[in-house]
TrEMBL record:
<dbReference type="GO" id="GO:0004441">
    <property type="term" value="F:inositol-1,4-bisphosphate 1-phosphatase activity"/>
</dbReference>
<dbReference type="InterPro" id="IPR020550">
    <property type="entry name" value="Inositol_monophosphatase_CS"/>
</dbReference>
<dbReference type="InterPro" id="IPR020583">
    <property type="entry name" value="Inositol_monoP_metal-BS"/>
</dbReference>
<feature type="binding site">
    <location>
        <position position="119"/>
    </location>
    <ligand>
        <name>Mg(2+)</name>
    </ligand>
</feature>
<keyword id="KW-0460">Magnesium</keyword>
<keyword id="KW-0479">Metal-binding</keyword>
<dbReference type="GO" id="GO:0046872">
    <property type="term" value="F:metal ion binding"/>
</dbReference>
<dbReference type="GO" id="GO:0008441">
    <property type="term" value="F:3'(2'),5'-bisphosphate nucleotidase activity"/>
</dbReference>
<protein>
    <recommendedName>
        <fullName>3'(2'),5'-bisphosphate nucleotidase 1</fullName>
        <ecNumber>3.1.3.57</ecNumber>
        <ecNumber>3.1.3.7</ecNumber>
    </recommendedName>
</protein>
<keyword id="KW-0378">Hydrolase</keyword>
<feature type="binding site">
    <location>
        <position position="118"/>
    </location>
    <ligand>
        <name>Mg(2+)</name>
    </ligand>
</feature>
<dbReference type="Pfam" id="PF00459">
    <property type="entry name" value="Inositol_P"/>
</dbReference>
<feature type="binding site">
    <location>
        <position position="73"/>
    </location>
    <ligand>
        <name>Mg(2+)</name>
    </ligand>
</feature>
<dbReference type="InterPro" id="IPR000760">
    <property type="entry name" value="Inositol_monophosphatase-like"/>
</dbReference>
<comment type="similarity">
    <text>Belongs to the inositol monophosphatase superfamily.</text>
</comment>
<feature type="binding site">
    <location>
        <position position="116"/>
    </location>
    <ligand>
        <name>Mg(2+)</name>
    </ligand>
</feature>
<dbReference type="GO" id="GO:0046854">
    <property type="term" value="P:phosphatidylinositol phosphate biosynthetic process"/>
</dbReference>
Length: 306
């Protein structure tokens, strides 16, 4: 089964196990206590965990899928990793499912894998570890189609740490229980470390009953999936393709929507600009176009201009 399954099914099954291994590396670095923080830019830290998790993911996926283009947040990666970091097993329970017809014939050359080895680095360094996720997004040509969101510090009821959420358009989602957001309220989830005046103006345009400020694109989309928020608003550039590819695929596999502030999907082919210049607007169980309409003209002129 494993070797004959379509590429997308093997890529998803391999990414599930690889994201789990990367999560273990992220926990290990924190336990050792030396984070090795380097500033990549303003409010843009990188730690030993970002670097090591990326090496594990890129080496493992490249080893299994040498013809698939992989783009990681942390730039060039050393493919020589210890055996302990080279993940070769596929998630067998994922492979038991049947491949949606639309992706059955996709060839390795049709894919781009967007890797954020540690989303929510600022929060990781500040002790908000529940905001941290490992994101592996799978695009076919322009579209975000499959995604893995792994939470290394999620506390399972049995005490085990970590959980892995997946979504594949045409198949569905797994690893969590979807809960609708409460009726009669409008809760927004947004950034806690990258706000500015224009973004605040966009937030003010919604009649929200609550604004949750949390780290990471992955964690914010999880809040939509688990009914903690109705919409994710980020009306400024700053997020990158590796932040949104996996969350978009998982959210849309669950029936939600993730776009820029104009309601347009981003393209995820290998040649696109990495920055999501026109912000992020995501929702589940809402009329997405109504949310797009509410963005103030001044914000749209500054952020969402064509
Ligand atoms: P946040 O919602 O602020 O946690 O951001 C979600 C993702 O986008 C994280 O990976 C951030 O590092 C990234 N991001 C957002 N805004 C910026 C920015 N101004 N500079 C660098 N990274 C950003
Ligand atoms: Mg990120
Ligand atoms: Mg990151």
């Amino acid at each position: 089964m494993a070797t004959t399954a379509p590429v997308i099914m093997r890529l998803m099954a391999s990414s599930i196990n690889t994201a789990k291994r990367a999560g273990g590396i992220i926990r290990d670095v924190l336990k050792k206590g030396d984070l090795g923080i380097v500033d990549k830019g303003k409010n843009d830290p990188q730690t030993e965990a970002d670097r090591s998790a990326q090496r594990c993911i890129i080496a493992s996926l490249t080893n299994k899928f040498p013809k698939v283009k992989i783009i990681g947040e942390e730039g060039g990666s050393d493919l020589n990793v210890c055996d302990d970091w080279l993940v070769t097993e596929l998630d067998e329970s994922f492979l038991q499912q049947s491949c949606p017809a639309e992706w059955q014939d996709a060839r390795p050359e049709d894919f781009v894998v967007w890797v954020d080895p540690l989303d929510g680095t600022a929060e990781y360094t500040q002790g908000f570890v529940e905001h941290v996720t490992v994101l592996i997004g799978i695009a076919v040509k322009d579209a975000a189609v499959g995604g893995i969101i792994h939470q290394p510090f999620y506390q399972q009821p049995d005490g085990e740490l970590g959980r892995t959420i997946w979504g594949l358009k045409g198949l569905g989602t797994g690893g969590f229980t979807a809960v609708p957001a409460p009726a009669g309220q409008f809760i927004i989830t947004t950034t806690r470390s990258h706000s500015n005046a224009l973004h605040q103006q966009a937030l003010n345009a919604y009649a929200s009953t609550e604004v949750l400020k949390v780290g990471g694109a992955g964690f914010k989309v999880l809040q939509l999936l688990e009914g903690k928020a109705h919409a994710y608003v980020f009306a400024t550039p700053g997020c990158k393709k590796w932040d949104t590819c996996a969350p978009e695929a998982v959210l849309e596999a669950q029936g939600g929507c993730l776009t820029n502030i104009n309601g347009e999907h981003y393209a995820y082919n290998a040649d696109v600009e990495h920055v999501n210049r026109k912000g992020v607007l995501a929702s589940l169980g809402q009329n997405h176009s109504d949310l797009v309409e509410k963005i103030p003209a001044e914000v749209r002129a500054a952020v969402g201009a064509k």
